TrEMBL record, chain A:
This is histidine kinase. It comes from the Bacteria. The lineage of its organism: Bacteria, Bacillati, Bacillota, Bacilli, Bacillales. It comes from Paenibacillus lactis. It is a multi-pass membrane protein. GO terms for molecular function: protein histidine kinase activity. It is found in: Cell membrane.
TrEMBL record, chain B:
It comes from Paenibacillus lactis. The keyword Amino-acid biosynthesis does not apply. This is Ribose transport system substrate-binding protein. Belongs to the bacterial solute-binding protein 2 family. Signal peptide: none annotated. PANTHER family: D-ALLOSE-BINDING PERIPLASMIC PROTEIN-RELATED. Pfam families: Peripla_BP_4.
Length: 598, 327
């Protein structure tokens, strides 16, 4: 197989088209579905982040609400009020008893709450109660300077939640806590009597937040309403300016989040406001999606590759399958080209190919038939031409004519001799016609006229003839030597056997696209049964002239078609008329068809 | 003939699919790499808060930059032999880079040489070794920190003053630099005399004893600089015990609960605090830069902060004084 034919073959074209189709479809699918899945992944990530910070919010609020409830319980505890308000009026022993009672109460609350580090009450009168009886205050720390203390005083009975900070008020203890503080008031609501401090162990929040999973680099941080960091995994880096955080932007944000675009990709911030002023912020690195992206790309690539591989394989097999019957057809055609007409294509399954194969088979059969037909026709033609030739150089006629010439010469009838000899010469010249089969009617008329002239000279008054063919017919063509056998037949079978002289009329006319040439005699005529056998194929018992007539009929039909030929009308005793029907074809027309005439 | 044609087609298809696949794989998977492996060798695992915070910084960086780190180190800082052993065991594992805090300026030289010969990039943190085996050193600017301490003390001293320095181990690079920093300030101060440098061997008790003796011998001493945590605490205890709180000014280094208490009590006036978290973080980050072929400076200094009683509990400083290390 040469490369050029391979590219041009239908199979490779089909295969190529299929491959392109598969490639195109696969790429299109990838291009369409990839961004879709990408945005789906992003959406999932965003949903996940916001769900996560909602969860964080719920957890933190649980802690804070717990502290608030606790602060209310402590505030409304009658012992606390009594201790702080009427502290001065009680006996020291009773006061100590009351303090133990309160401390015990606080302690019982703490036992059930692991998240609460401590509960303290600092009375403005200098007293203090802790959940542990043995607690000592840090002598180097001034309560009044503590942020939570001042905030509680400022907020007049409202609970204040601090940021995360180190609580130094208890001696030897430096715990990271989130503080709830509120001012307690006595019977006069406007006059404070002390500060309640509940410390939430910051470790619980820290642990919760640090365990969150927001991808490798993603993180959650919390700031309070002043923008101070409650929790940030990279707090130290922020303080050293090794990193920056968008604290201002977070504080000002009202839409629940924003996207920060950076060199290395963008960060997605999701912000959740808590009831008490903290903001919980989830930060998700879009680059984190890259891992998912890569994974996705990989699976897309593998799927695409598989599809493509299968597609390519299938297209080759499919194209082979499709073109196989065509190839078989092509091979058969090559056989036919070589001349083998007996071959048949097997009719396949597919509709188009099988109808093609069937048509091809029919065609081969037809060609074979036609070829046989042509062979037979050519044979017949040749035979009939031979017969025509025989008719035109009838030796008997020649002998009789020459005999008549001799006889006339002996009688010294020079004029007649000249007339007859020249007629004979004209006859042969017309019949030769340079060997052509088709001749103008004019030539045929000349031929038959010469023939009749000769016959008349021989038979003298026995025959009269009239030639009345319209000269307008002369430019049309006819087969040569058509009329001679007919006239011969009229003379020998019609007039010769008749008593007295007979006449022959030759006429011709144009009827539409046909030309009718007639030879009419007033001889003895023919019986209908003889008439019917006249034009059929020559048999053994036929007379010589009737062979000539049948031959004329056959020749006309061979050359012009079955609708043309001879037709006889005869009446016994009255005469016979034979009509020759041929198509009206002008000499020029014939020349135009490529056949040449003299 | 027919079967060979078929075979050729199938082969052609297979080759086409393969080429396409490889191209696609290259396109998509080519940029993907396994995370780099970095070994971080510290002086002590969890004896001292300084190292715990530093390791915290290492882990923060490893999460952020997606690095696989393994932290190795002896349980105690004095156990230099154990550190050498651990690092030598880590070299054949061929980490992409090693981040090392040398337990000794001289004894870790052969280790650094081995790392260098193995072709592994070395980043030194906190303290270096002699010679230039490392790509860079990331540490507190000890000379600068010493100067800060000197300035703090200078501001507290009377016109004519006598000052002592309580240092830790003679010959340690950090100690030398800090002392030079302190001296560069105080020696330039008019009427100020540095009576001497005393070595506590890194032990609080020894520092306490030295200071007691010193204060008894020199009742006119105006100020002391403690060059590390045990030295400072030991000196502080002596001052408190002798009732000289506020009278003898004390400026120290590093932080601990003991120092915080002394600061609250007013025994210590100022402490200079390093940022170990940043050292750990930058150590890993810089090692990554080296791996990526970036040029890194020979030395990267991290900050130190001066803390007084008044700014102990600010938002920033409480995180340094009371590091919140995850257990």
């Amino acid at each position: 197989m040469r490369p050029s034919t391979r590219i041009k073959s239908i199979q490779s074209r089909i295969a190529g088209s299929f491959v392109m189709l598969v490639l195109f479809t696969a790429l299109l699918l990838i291009f369409i579905s990839y961004p879709l899945s990408e945005s789906a992944v992003r959406e999932t990530a965003e949903n996940y982040t916001s769900e996560l910070i909602n969860q964080v919010n719920a957890n933190i609020e649980t802690y804070i609400t717990g502290m608030k409830d606790m602060s209310l319980a402590a505030m409304n505890n009658p012992n606390v009020r009594e201790y702080l308000v009427s502290g001065g009026g009680l006996e020291p022993e009773e006061l100590a008893k009351l303090k133990r009672k309160i401390s015990g109460y606080f302690h019982s609350i703490l036992v059930s709450r692991k998240d609460i580090a401590s509960i303290h009450i600092f009375g403005y009168n200098g007293t203090f109660i802790s959940d542990r009886m043995d607690t000592e205050l840090n002598p180097n720390i001034s309560l009044q300077e503590q942020d939570w203390y001042r905030q509680a005083q400022e907020h007049k009975g409202q609970a204040v939640i601090s940021s995360s900070h180190v609580q130094p008020v208890v001696k030897d203890e430096y715990r990271w806590v989130v503080s709830l503080s509120r001012e307690l008031s006595g019977s006069d609501p406007d006059k404070g009597i002390g500060i309640l401090l509940i410390d939430l162990n910051f470790k619980v929040i820290n642990d919760m937040l640090s365990k969150l999973d927001l991808g490798n680099r993603g993180y959650v941080f919390v700031i309070d309403k002043e923008g101070r960091i409650v929790y940030h995994p990279q707090q130290q880096l922020l303080y050293s300016n090794l990193k920056t955080e968008r604290l201002e932007q977070v504080l000002q944000d009202t839409r629940g989040g924003f996207v920060v675009k950076e060199d290395g990709g963008s960060r997605i911030y999701s912000i959740k406001d808590t009831d008490f002023g903290w903001k919980i912020v989830g930060v998700f690195y879009e680059n984190e999606l890259v891992d998912n992206k890569r994974q996705m790309q990989r699976s897309f690539a593998i799927a695409g590759m598989l599809c493509l591989g299968v597609g390519v394989l299938l297209s080759f097999l499919l194209s082979r399958n499709l073109t196989r019957p065509i190839k078989r057809l092509q091979e058969t055609m090559a056989e036919v080209e070589k001349g083998n007409f007996d071959i048949r294509v097997p009719v396949g399954h597919s509709k188009e190919i099988s109808s093609l194969a069937r048509s091809f088979n029919v065609m081969v059969l037809k060609i074979k038939e036609l070829m046989n037909q042509i062979v037979v026709e050519q044979e017949v033609k040749r035979k009939s031409e031979l017969n025509a030739l025989q008719a035109q150089i009838n030796p008997h006629f020649l002998y009789n004519t020459l005999d008549s010439i001799i006889w006339m010469a002996e009688s010294k009838k020079h004029d007649e001799v000249i007339l007859m000899t020249s007629a004979l010469a004209r006859l042969f010249r017309a019949s030769l016609s340079k060997g052509r089969e088709m001749i103008p009617i004019a030539t045929e008329i000349e031929h038959i006229t010469s023939y009749l002239n000769i016959q008349q000279m021989r038979y003298q008054d026995k025959i009269r003839f009239t030639q009345s063919v319209d000269p307008s017919l002369y430019p049309y063509v006819t087969l040569k030597v058509l009329l001679q056998p007919l006239v011969e037949n009229a003379i020998y079978h019609g007039i010769k056997n008749k008593q007295g002289p007979g006449s022959i009329v030759i006429s011709g006319e144009l009827q539409g696209d046909r030309i009718m040439l007639r030879v009419a005699d007033d001889g003895i005529g023919m019986a209908p049964d003889k008439l019917s056998k006249l034009l059929t194929a020559p048999g053994k018992e036929r007379s010589k002239t009737s062979v000539g007539i049948a031959n004329v009929h056959q020749r006309i039909q061979l050359y012009f078609g079955p609708e043309y030929g001879l037709s006889y009308e005869s009446e016994p005793g009255a005469g016979t008329t034979v009509t020759v029907t041929i198509p009206a074809i002008r000499v020029e027309e014939l020349a135009g068809r490529g056949e040449k005439l003299s | 003939m027919r079967s060979t044609i078929r075979l050729r087609y199938v082969l052609l298809a297979a080759v086409a699919a393969l080429v396409f696949g490889v191209a696609l794989y290259q396109l998509i998977g080519g940029g993907r790499q396994a995370p780099p492996k970095i070994t971080v060798a510290v002086k002590a695992m969890d004896e001292i808060e300084f190292w715990r915070v530093l390791i915290d910084g290492v882990h923060t960086a490893s999460r952020e930059f997606n690095v696989e780190v393994s932290v190795i180190g002896p349980p105690k800082e004095v156990d230099v032999d154990r550190q050498i052993e651990l690092i030598e065991a880590a070299i054949p594992e061929k980490p992409d880079a090693i981040v090392m805090a040398a337990g000794d300026y001289h004894r870790l030289v052969p280790v650094a040489e081995k790392i260098h010969q193995a072709g592994i990039p070395l980043v030194m943190i906190d303290s270096a070794v002699q010679g230039s085996y490392a790509e860079t050193l990331i540490a507190t600017d000890n000379f600068g920190a010493g100067q800060k301490a000197g300035k703090e003390l200078a501001a507290l001293l009377p016109g004519n003053a006598q000052v002592a320095i309580v240092s830790f181990v003679q010959g340690a690079s950090t100690q030398i630099e800090r002392e030079q920093g302190v001296r560069s300030i105080l020696e330039g101060r008019a009427g100020t005399e540095i009576v001497g440098t005393y070595f506590s061997e890194g032990m609080e008790e020894r520092a306490y004893e030295i200071t007691m003796k010193l204060l008894q011998e020199r009742p006119d001493l105006d100020g002391i600089v403690g060059l590390n945590e045990p030295s400072t605490v030991g000196a502080g205890r002596a001052i408190r015990e002798l009732g000289l709180t506020g009278q003898v000014k004390l400026v120290g280094f590093d932080s601990s609960i003991k120092e915080v208490k002394l600061l609250e009590e007013g025994v210590i006036q100022s402490i200079i605090v390093q940022k170990p978290f940043n050292i750990g973080y930058l150590g890993v980050k810089t090692a990554l830069s080296v791996l990526e072929g970036d040029k890194v400076p020979d030395k990267v200094y991290t900050d130190s902060v001066v803390i007084h009683k008044s700014n102990m509990y600010t938002e920033e400083n409480q995180k340094l004084l009371f590091p919140f290390v995850e257990e």
